[in-house]
Amino acid sequence: VNGVETEKTESVLPGDACARGLLLALADAPAGTRFLVRVAPEYAYLDPHHGPRMVPLYDKLPGSSPERCRSRRFPRPPAGVDAESFLFFDVGVLARRVAAPVRRPRSLPETSKRNTATAFPVPFATKRVLREGDGFERPRPPFDVSARVEVRVASPATDDEKTDAAAVAVPETVVRYVSGDGTLPPELDAAVDTMRVGEEAVVYAPPRRRPETPPKNARLAMPRDALERAAKNGAEYRVRLLGITHVRDVFGDGVVVKRRLEEGVGDFPGDCPVRDCAVTARVAVAAASISDDDDEKKYENASSLDEHARAMLGEEGDKNKNASGSDPFAALASRRGLRFVHDTGAQTPLAFRLGAGAVPAAVETSVRLMLPGETALVTVRDALGAGARYAYERSAPDAPGADAARETLEALGGVASSSGKNVFPQKQVGLVFVVRLVGFERPVNWYRAGLGEMLAEADAGRLEGNALLNAGKTELARDKYEKTLRDLRGIRGLESDEEIRATNALVNSVTLNLAAASQRLGSHARAIALVDEILSHDPKHGKALWRRGVSLAATHEYAGARADFRAVAEGDA
Fold first, then answer.
1. Could you give the CA distance from residue 32 to residue 161 in angstroms, rounded to a whole number?
2. Per-residue pLDDT tens for 386-412?
3. 529 C-beta neighbours (distance < 10 Å), count
4. For residues 323 and 81, which has the higher predicted lDDT (pLDDT)?
5. C-alpha closest to that of 381 among 309, 294, 281
6. Fold assignment, 255-440
7. What distance in Å separates the CA atoms of residue 195 and residue 180, rounded to the nearest whole number?
8. Helix, strand or coil for residue 164?
9. What's the pLDDT tens digit per position in 112-131?
10. 141, 219 Cβ separation under 8 angstroms
11. Mind telling me which InterPro entries this protein's record contains (predicted)?
């Protein structure tokens, strides 16, 4: 390089020796050619956009003049290279393949040791597709993923000459993991997240400044010498995506996790019971304790809810399916350490309405994300603590398996007092549900239905909210009223006065009921705001005045309350 001998005390990665001028020269160079490239300093180490390793002060850059570097930052060149000199590259293009760049995951910080630490802006990784996959879905955290992986790195050179041959560092291995859990190297993990089931590709991870830390999964661990060669020359992964299992953090707090066991029929989410409606489902529930047991016995020990789920889906799950006729309900019942407390049965599925608190919130919300015929495994962690609100704490007293589940949870996780009630939980306990959506009543399509159908469904929602309110389920009634009111306010294109009057009458009725529910929950400011919407159009509306007067009196606004009550009395007279 410019007649300067580069000292061999430091490894020079490909990115350190590259420059933007060389990149331009390589853009259309065919494989098998050899040529000489002359690069000016402005297209090499004096290019301010060259890379991330910048020199903060001009006096730290050997051979640089203050006039050129006082107010700019430049990449640091390799030892022995003058940044202001012309560079000459003797280039031989060995191979040229079409590949797509793989983006760095947002969860991986830029300063991570896993970064490619070269001055030249090389991609995080590249992927070359060998065989296209099927479908449209791709893995994403926290999906369960199954892939076949082979790892290759550059073969060690026998002489001073370098070789481009690749040696197998890890033979073809089937790996099961959770997307984004750190089991795979980050470049490979990010590349697999762009693949579809059945797709086969070659993923290239650029060189690193230091050997990577071996991944958690020992089956992908490379020998030390292979790690060092991968850090110097990069690693190549030949991977085929075998399968993905849908896994969702249902509420986003890590307490409730839904795993798909069997596929349903239809398209997600158009064929899911997202709206409140009548559904039919088979529901089974079991309880389990969570303790810190030996990791090596995690499939034999039924203490971890996540391991229960993965065992049913992975290697241990295959054994259970063979033993139970591929029935996940029978597989759950046969798991050691689980206390199977209730199953509605295949012949007598449970019929209930969504939004009425008939089943635990974990089950109801999971059902809304399911297709007809789909079977899912729903786990609730810490069912006596943080997960109680998603279990049976807020569901109906006659919810399926409620009494048996509560008794089992208390027996597993707590100490009974003299009164028989659980006092202090000694260890975390959780619930495991297996849910199969048999079918559901198709709700009205508010984008295509006529006004009569929409008003009829809205009135049914109002009546259902009234029943919940009378039963003391005030929060569920409030939610039902809010959904119904949101639908009614979305109606457009009313043509006749009769249609407008009918719609407004139902809107006012639902609004008043929502105000009543808010008052019972102590949200008097919300109740006043709701009835004010009605009074802004009809200042003499008696029921709205009464509701506002009650809330004003509850908030010690006695003058305003007296005025509203007087207006109601005068109107009745």
1. 18
2. 889 999 988 888 888 888 888 888 777
3. 14
4. 81
5. 309
6. Chitinase A; domain 3 (3.10.50)
7. 14
8. coil
9. 444 434 444 567 889 999 99
10. no
11. FKBP4/5/8-like, PPIase_dom_sf, TPR-like_helical_dom_sf
Q: What is the sign of the dihedral through the CA atoms of 221, 225, 226 and 229? A: positive
Greatest Cα pair distance in the chain: 109
The first and second tokens of residue 423, run together, are 């006092």
200-205 and 339-343 as β-strands: parallel, antiparallel, unpaired? unpaired
CA dihedral (158, 159, 163, 165) in degrees, to 10, reads: -10
In degrees, to the nearest 5, what angle opens at C-alpha 234 toward C-alphas 232 and 235?
A: 135
Residue spans per domain, the chain: 14-92, 100-245, 255-440, 451-572
122 token code pair: 């090389």
Element (H, E) at 261: strand 256-262
Task: Report d(CA 19, CA 91) in Å as an integer.
Answer: 13
The CATH fold of domain 100-245: Chitinase A; domain 3 (3.10.50)
Cα torsion for 372, 265, 240, 304, to the nearest 10°? 10
Beta strands in 264-399 (DSSP E): 278-289, 339-343, 350-353, 375-380
Q: What fold, for 451-572? A: 1.25.40
Element (H, E) at 567: helix 558-572
Collapsed DSSP state (helix, strand, coil) of residue 493 = coil
pTM: 0.69
How far apart CA 476 and CA 537 sit, in angstroms, is 29
Q: Any idea which residue has 């065992």 for tokens?
A: 311
Place of tokens 């002359």: 38
pLDDT of the residue at 49: 62
Q: Please give the residue that has the higher pLDDT: either 222 or 217.
A: 222
* Closest to 141 (Cα-Cα) out of 108, 174, 101: 108
Same CATH fold assignment for domains 100-245 and 451-572: no
User: Among candidates 164, 182, 4, which has minimal Cα distance to 78?
Assistant: 4
Query: CA-to-CA distance for 18 and 531, rounded, in angstroms?
Result: 70
